[in-house]
Amino acid sequence: MAEDVGPELTRLLNRLMLPANRGALCAPVIAVAPAGVDAQTYPVLNTLASTGPVTVARLAEEVGIDRSGTSRYADRLQEAGLLRRTTDPLDRRATLLSLTPRGTRVIGKLNATLTEHLRSLTAAWPEGSAEALARGLELLLDGPDIPVARLGGTPGPRRAGHDGAGRAGRA
What we know:
Layout: H1 6-16, H2 19-32, H3 41-51, H4 56-63, H5 67-79, E1 83-88, E2 91-99, H6 101-122, H7 129-142
Antiparallel strand pairs: 1-2
Helix pairs in contact: 2-6, 3-4, 3-6, 4-5
């Protein structure tokens, strides 16, 4: 690319990461969310939908918050009937978190709400702009050489709740 867009990307990504902007993007989702799902628990619920059954430690790593916060949010989601805890069949000392059938339905509806919100925000953009943004974000997050995010981009097969060496993550 002829022009150095690094400083502009830095400025824009810093703005996007501000809690107020993240909140504004997700406001329509939180507005229709059931009890137990709010701005703090939505990322936990959404990440769990992407990862499948995982330990609290693995979920905390994926979401980017500490274990105690993840555990508290999981408690709230469990009380709302959206999450369940089960014993890891490969390591009886570990507990796996997974969505309940209701949790799966709820996150599907919430993500459909977010999809419609994003469509409305980008509807008036010039032709191809939303697609270019999606491709650029995918490249930024998933590689090709140095992926930023692990969620949904782990190379090779990996059992949910276990690291690449087949060991269970600890809760």
